Structures are given as structure tokens and as C-alpha cells.
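Format notes (please read before filing issues)

Several people have asked whether sequences and C-alpha cells are stored in separate files. They are not. Every record keeps both together, in the order shown below: the sequence lines, then the C-alpha cell lines. Line labels are part of the format and must not be stripped during preprocessing.
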Amino acid sequence: MPRSIATQKALREWKLYFFLAPSLILVVMFSYFPAASAVYHSFFDWAGGETKHLIGLDNFRRAFGDQVLWNSFKTVSILVVFNLFKMIPSIFLAVIIHRIVSDRWQYFYRIFLVIPMIVPHLVTLFIWKFFFDPNLGALNKVLDLTGIKEVLVQIDQWFGWGVFHANASIGWLSQPELILPSLFIWGFPWIGTVGVLIYLAGLQSIGKEIYEAAELDGVGPFKKFLYIELPLIVTQVRLSLVLLIIGTLQGYGLQLVLLGNAGGPDGRGMVPGLWMYNRAFISGELGYACAIGMMLFVFILALTLINNKYVRVDK
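Then the structure lines:
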């Protein structure tokens, strides 16, 4: 007797579930289980990974009174604002490449952008650390050759900062006042390869008839960007914004390589991820580090929800 259409559909679905099951099991094992384990261990006093004692919410109470942790949240919030400004060059570069008439040259610039991705990120960080070196680094040499250092010294004398001195090298990573400016300068000219490629994908979906209509109406290059291109890539900007917020809040590799596990002088470069690393692997307070991770998760989730609510895309 032939099977009914509903039965055949159900069998196809069960076959699909059967083949998806191994993937779901791997996701649970390698993604959700570590996260659940972190939640579990945040309720323990876990010293050095050998012994652990149930202490309930004591780790979270300690975190709420941890001034270093709250200062690290302030620092990472400033870095999020810095990185918002760093999105602008990528958007403009994507628009410039998109407006190149020659497909061959567009392809060349895309390849030119992708090549730096081959260099390991850790190598890039060490190069930038050398770049900030007060004696051998290129930054101080450029400031000396261009006369910008003299301007900085003059401005320092006007405002009484006591940071820039005429006869002393600028210690970008050794002076507390210069830690945040150094983290802002890092990555100059702030061209994110992935961001540019994401924006280009959105720009290439804009129909030529839209540009033709704009030219007939006498719309200039800037107004094309403001009223056509930018509104039509808001989806890509929103995606980049979410990734930027999550990456900035979670990241600590930059601070660890440039400033060490203490976050530099006076801990000015301390961020929550670095403080979590410090507590877990320097002090051996694994339970407290897990509690910090849970607080960081809540903070990231809240900002992501705010972004999804207020950065809307009208279809």
C-alpha cells in the first residue's frame, strides 16, 4: 500500500534529523558544555584546579565589590567608542572601491586587502609593540622628523599635563596617561579587511538603475553616499557593529601582548577579559574567573540586545 504524503514527509524529516544529530552533539560538547561548566564552577572556590569548595554566590558578591573589575569595564567601554570611530575608514574605503569603474582594478584592491590577513594576528601585535618602543620604535621617529613632537610639547606646557618633554622619548606604553591614546592609535589607518569586504558585498547589491536615477536628478558623490549607499548597507553596518562590540568586550590579546597581564602602568589598560585571565592563570582563582566571565556574558548580551533594538533596518 503506498505511503501517504504526510508519512513520506515525516520520514524525510527523520532522516534529516538523523544526519544532523552528530553535528548537534558536537556543538553541545564543544560549545555549550564549556559554557555550562563555567557557570557551574563560578559557584566554587576553585584554588589552582585541584580542590574546590562550594561557596554559592560569594564569587559574584566579590566581583560587585572589585574596583579593578569595574575600572576595567570603564576602560573597555571607552575602547568600544574608539572602535566605533575606527569603523568609518573601512566604510569610506569600501565605497571608494565600489565606485571604481574597472572590474579588474576592483578585483586588484580586494586582493590587496585580503593579503594582510595571511599574517598571523600575534605577529601583527608584536610589530605594533615594537612600533611603540620609545627608543627604536617608528612612531617617535616619525613625530621627531615631522615636528609633531614639538607641537605636543608646546601643548603640554600650555595645559600642564606633564606627559610630553622635549628632551625625553615618549613612553607610549610606560606612561599611564598614554595607555588609552596608544590603544586608540593601534591599527592605524584602521582599515578592517573583513569589514571592508562585508560593506562591499552590501554595496554590490545596489542596482545600477538607482545610480542612474540619482545622476539624472543631479545628486553629487557625497549625497549618493548619504542618501543611497549608507542607508542600503545599514544591515552590513549593523552586523559589523555587533561583531565589533562582542570582539572588543571579549578581547584581551592586544592588552596582554602590549601591556602584560597587569594591564600596564597603574592597570590603565586592564579590560575584563584580561582581568579574568589574570585571576585564572596568574592567581589561580579559577572560580572567581568564571564568575567574571558570567558577568562579562551578561554585559555583552545587554549591549547586543540594545543594538538589536535601536539599530533597526527598515525593509
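For reference, the curators noted about this record: The longest helix spans residues 5-41. The radius of gyration is 25 Å.
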